[in-house]
Amino acid sequence: SLAAPTTARSRRSAFFLVPPRFACVARHPAALCSLGLSSPRSFAPRLGQAKNREEVLVMSIWSVIGSRCLPSEWDSRVGDVVDLLLSRGHRICSGGAVGADLAALRSLVRHGASACQGSSVFLPGDMSLAPPSCLPWLSRFAALGGEIVEGSASERSSRREVVAALLIRNCAIVRASAGVVAFVSGCSTGSWFTVGQAIRRDLAVVVFPVDGPSGLHRFVRGSWVPCRSLAGAYVFTYFEKE
After folding, report:
1. How many C-beta atoms surround the C-beta of residue 187 within 10 A?
2. Minimal CB count within 10 Å: which of 47, 88, 208, 220?
3. Pick from 65, 61, 58: which is nearest to 23 by CA?
4. What is the pLDDT of residue 229?
5. How far are the Cα atoms of 36, 43, 65, 236 from residue 233, in angstroms, in the given order?
6. For position 31, what pLDDT does the model report?
7. How far is it between the farthest Cα atoms of the chain?
8. What is the mean pLDDT of each run of 10 residues along the chain (242 residues)?
9. Confidence (pTM)
């Protein structure tokens, strides 16, 4: 059925109320180690210094997001990253769009309840705005215990309101995550906005530029370094603070 899931795991959220303090511990080197990477921040706090259970929990959530126009041959690469993160005991957060988001969602559903429980999909509005190709996968995800977080937009929203809801959704994804993996094809304004928000919050960030390294955006807080353990990926390395 393509009907919107009605399980208790689907909820509406005021995204901006997610406590930002939970993201500060995500600079811990273990975040990048989850992808077989070394940490660019020698001064990052250790996991043992996390003050409470919630801070430890948020470190286990990685966002896997990216372009809607992701070439179909990249779907398996998205699935490989999801597989890797799940194998390290992490859960996945994504955006519920077509392209990279849908590839991540399919991978979660194929792994079953053990992967969906603890994972989340953030939507810009209610289920009526979800792409038709995503609806059956969202329904299966919810049925397997995954959480669907709906935003403020609806079919009655203006284009301006929908765009604002998309940006709020992207910020919520970042707040919920210890790190971000983005598969970027073309200009992909929304994906780069999400990457920028992650860098602003000092998160671990890995980008797969589908069109090659010339497509990487520059950020003043650091630079992109080729990833030795993930072919075609680039890690954002923060400049050390003096």
Report:
1. 13
2. 220
3. 58
4. 86
5. 12, 24, 14, 10
6. 56
7. 56
8. 37 35 37 53 31 44 96 96 94 96 98 96 94 97 97 94 96 96 93 97 96 95 93 94 66
9. 0.79
